[in-house]
């Protein structure tokens, strides 16, 4: 596990409680809840704020939105690097939250103070666009928000998991529960954001709509800092990227050397690795042997006793195995991209479908098309609760695992349900177009077709169930299988998969729109009238790609080698002894 900063009870003659545990969760979750309220509450309605309050042209507003989203998805890599290399998770989260708070405060002030935004439009006159100074405040606020979010996202989930000691059997079993409830809490905050905050923004005003999450963020920072004496903290162990690069360079320099016959001859140095192997040393694995050459000791590498070797020429087997672990995670990481691509359609084409359907619950109340994602969130939250309280107990009887099923199996179930979600979406689109044809509305782009919007509930709900299985399993996989000294960095990979999945959606839509165009103007994804397109073909194309992706994932999961570690305190040093255990059992 990680190094714990605690007072020595022998010195103080006072019995101190162990740090970490469930008591720290309210302090940590409060930070995550407020971050999600701010990000989702603003992003969901951001296009409305930019066009109605700052009078931006639609294309410029859309570009601003995508640029902000792309930046916010990449900054977790920077936050993870700072956390693992220099500051540690607690201080990274604290400073990032303060940066985020400044950005949200500036944004809220711009919505409240008239001089920080253009005057309201009057009558038929051309609306005055925001000045350069007003735009500078907007872009600066968004940049601060992206930087703050980049420090919070990769660290808060890993920091929460750090509060459970993996070497303690009683606490180790609580880690998988933590990931379930972390995602549950995140889902609840998103649900509140897309309902309550959006309602406040549209009906009460943007000052309150942005002010509420800003105030909540301030209170969460205070709460998070108050919990400091309770936390189990880790000392940063230096740049993980530097270590990975050092192993790569040293292996390349020694590429022509013959491999040693006995892996026990490879270089080991417990003192050198002490800060990056607190929970246990990684032991040699027989794959990717070309990297093992970085741990071959030559005459040039011999140094005086107590002197550190040149790490650009010689590395310990623990550091070599760190790089192997990261490489092994790559294929599993890539498998998660396409699920995000499928999930992203809810905010694009599924939203367009909803706009053309009857959304009335009563004669006077109509469900906003954008609120259909509520069904996704409710199904996700329900699945998480059912999984934690019922499914795990049933599965535990057959597998013997405390978590019920392994995270690789959990991800596989999510992939299969996602395939079903896009398949169902295609058939629902066929039903919607048949209704349009039956009522003679196929040529009317903005006509409301007399078919209930609740036909879309199955596809929204299936996406929520798929996320409850796959995304939580993905997150748990990154934390569990990453070398302990770079867990923030590994958790950041979860967010980069989301980023790449959204970019993949943009690319796929662009390619389909281009290559499905015909001379008569028809297109699978038309610009104006969805009724004249073949959206069902697009959904089924994604379904086919997901089937291929599922087969790819199954192959990767079967070939995957779990991270083997040697727990400190075991007497044996050889790889075949009982001291070597799997970090996660299948």
From TrEMBL:
User: Which keywords does this chain's UniProt record carry?
Assistant: Membrane, Transmembrane, Transmembrane helix
* Protein location: Membrane
This protein's membrane topology, according to the annotation, is: Multi-pass membrane protein
Named from the GO MF annotations, one term is: transmembrane transporter activity
Q: Where are the transmembrane segments?
A: 90-116, 136-160, 181-200, 206-231, 325-345, 365-387, 407-427, 447-472, 493-517, 537-560
Q: Which InterPro entries match?
A: MFS_trans_sf, POT_fam
| Main location class | membrane
Q: Can you quote a single GO CC term?
A: membrane
Which domain of life does this protein belong to? Eukaryota
Question: What is the similarity comment for this entry?
Answer: Belongs to the major facilitator superfamily. Proton-dependent oligopeptide transporter (POT/PTR) (TC 2.A.17) family.
| Protein's UniProt name | Major facilitator superfamily (MFS) profile domain-containing protein
User: Which organism's genome codes for this protein?
Assistant: Gossypium raimondii (Peruvian cotton)
């Amino acid at each position: 596990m990680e190094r714990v900063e605690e007072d020595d009870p022998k010195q103080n003659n006072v019995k101190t409680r162990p740090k970490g545990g469930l008591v720290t969760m309210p302090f940590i979750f409060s930070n995550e809840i407020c971050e999600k309220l701010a990000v989702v509450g603003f992003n969901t309605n951001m296009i409305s704020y930019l066009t109605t309050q700052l009078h931006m042209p639609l294309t410029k507003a859309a570009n601003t939105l995508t640029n902000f989203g792309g930046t916010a998805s990449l900054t977790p890599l920077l936050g993870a690097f700072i956390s693992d290399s220099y500051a540690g998770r607690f201080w990274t989260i604290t400073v990032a939250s303060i940066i985020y708070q400044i950005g949200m405060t500036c944004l809220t002030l711009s919505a409240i103070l008239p001089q920080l935004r253009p005057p309201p439009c009057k009558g038929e006159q051309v609306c005055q666009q925001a000045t350069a100074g007003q735009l500078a405040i907007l872009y600066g606020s968004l940049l601060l928000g992206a930087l703050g979010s980049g420090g919070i996202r990769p660290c808060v989930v890993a920091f929460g998991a750090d509060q459970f000691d993996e070497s303690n059997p009683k606490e180790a079993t609580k880690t998988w529960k933590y990931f379930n409830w972390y995602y549950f809490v995140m889902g609840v905050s998103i649900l509140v954001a897309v309902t309550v905050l959006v309602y406040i923004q549209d009906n009460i005003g943007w000052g309150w709509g942005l002010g509420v999450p800003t105030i909540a963020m301030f209170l969460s920072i205070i709460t998070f800092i108050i919990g400091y004496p309770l936390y189990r903290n880790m000392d940063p162990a230096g740049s993980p990227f530097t270590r990975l690069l050092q192993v790569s360079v040293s292996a390349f320099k020694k590429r022509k050397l013959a491999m040693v016959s006995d892996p026990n001859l490879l270089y080991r140095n417990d003192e050198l690795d002490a800060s990056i192997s607190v929970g246990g040393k990684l032991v040699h694995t027989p794959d990717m042997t070309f990297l093992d050459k970085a741990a071959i000791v030559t005459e040039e590498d011999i140094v005086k006793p107590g002197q550190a070797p040149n790490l650009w020429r010689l590395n310990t087997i623990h550091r070599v195995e760190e790089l192997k672990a990261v490489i092994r995670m790559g294929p599993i990481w890539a498998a998660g991209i396409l699920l995000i691509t499928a999930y992203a359609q809810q905010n694009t084409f599924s939203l367009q479908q909803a706009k053309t359907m009857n959304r009335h619950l009563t004669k006077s109340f109509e469900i906003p098309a954008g609120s259909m994602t509520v069904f996704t969130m409710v199904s996700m939250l329900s699945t998480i609760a059912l999984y934690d309280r019922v499914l795990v107990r049933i599965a535990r009887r057959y597998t013997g695992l405390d978590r019920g099923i392994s995270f690789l199996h959990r991800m596989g179930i999510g992939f299969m349900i996602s395939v079903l979600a896009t398949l169902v979406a295609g058939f629902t689109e066929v039903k919607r177009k048949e209704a349009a044809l039956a009522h003679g509305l196929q040529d009317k782009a903005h006509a409301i077709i007399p078919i209930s919007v609740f036909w879309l509930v199955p596809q929204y709900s299936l996406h929520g169930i798929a996320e409850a299985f796959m995304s939580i399993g993905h997150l748990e996989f990154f934390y569990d299988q990453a070398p302990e000294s770079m867990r923030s960095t590994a958790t950041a990979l979860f967010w980069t998969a989301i980023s790449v999945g959204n970019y993949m959606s943009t690319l796929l839509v662009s390619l389909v729109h281009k290559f499905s165009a015909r001379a008569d103007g028809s297109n699978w994804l038309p610009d104006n009238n969805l009724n004249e397109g073949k959206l069902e073909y697009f959904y089924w194309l994604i379904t086919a790609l997901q089937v291929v992706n599922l087969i790819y994932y199954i192959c990767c999961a079967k070939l995957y080698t779990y991270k083997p570690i040697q727990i400190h305190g075991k007497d044996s040093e050889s790889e075949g002894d009982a001291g070597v255990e799997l970090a996660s059992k299948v």
